[in-house]
Amino acid sequence: MLTFPRLNPVALSLGPLDIHWYGLMYLLGFALAWGLARRQLRRPWVTVQREQIDDLIFYGALGVVVGGRLGYVLFYNLDRLLAEPSWLFRIWEGGMSFHGGLLGVAAVMLWYSRRTGLAPGALLDFVAPLVPLGLGLGRLGNFIGQELWGRPTSLPWGMVFPADPLALPRHPSQLYQFALEGLLLFAVLWWYAARPRPRWSTAALFLLLYGGLRFLVEFVREPDAHIGLELFGWMSRGQLLSLPMMLGGAALFFWAWHRRGGAGLGSPESPRPSRPGPK
Predict the structure, then answer these.
(1) Which of 195, 201, 190 is nearest to 268 (CA)?
(2) Residues paired with 160 in a beta bridge
(3) Domain-embedded: residue 120
(4) Fewer CB within a 10 Å sphere, N or C end of the chain?
């Protein structure tokens, strides 16, 4: 059995203001996304312009926060929202949903592609490899904050979290998600996007892989106490939300590689525009 390290979820206190590691992980995730986005500009088939990177990160952050909060409220706490509508705006009480954040980012990116004239598939393919490291850092924040831990286990790496009232050895599922949905997913997507691929296929691969990895980890992650295992007696809410990601990602990936009879596979579909894009 492993011992939970003595980690204070508050990274820094400035008078009455507490700065939590979870929030700092978000900031670091956006900073890494900015750096990786600029690195992707070296690829000649990329159509995003350097002066658009700052806008992409800003709007992406907005989509994560707004979508993540709305998703948490609608997907996991709809009853409380209906009973207390003002709770939606009390973000200082915590509560974010990855699936809601994903929908928020997708909506913002589609709006941005229409505003700038960038092809939506090319833009989402550009953004997809920027996401996993931020997800992984978020899971580290969950681990430090002792939240979203795993189900009880007798395995030797089971961990007792001091905040757990049952004091049971549990799967450190936050670390599993850090390794799988963060590091592994980033490595695969970054490798895949390093060569010209059919448009939409990188975004599709993100949906397929994240959905599958999240579906697997949910088997050892403690389900939400107020929801439990709701479908067939074993499927969690996270698995239910990840299932359409897997199916949609697989269908989109197949379509991306086989549209137009397979013509032009492995080659860029459009060159980088010679004029700067709008800011």
Answers:
(1) 195
(2) 3, 169
(3) yes
(4) C
**How far is the C-alpha of 56 from the C-alpha of 109, rounded, in Å?**
8
pTM of the model: 0.89
Quick one: angle between helices 53-71 and 21-40, nearest 10?
Answer: 140
Task: State the pLDDT confidence band at 95, using cuts at 50, 70 and 90.
Answer: confident
- In the predicted model, is pLDDT for residue 271 greater than 50? no
Does residue 161 form part of some domain? no
Domain extent at residue 56: 18-155+166-257
Please indicate, yes or no, if residue 279 is contained in any of the structural domains. no
**For position 260, what pLDDT does the model report?**
56
Is the model's pLDDT at 53 over the cut of 60? yes
3-state secondary structure of 116: helix
Mean pLDDT within 92-113 = 90
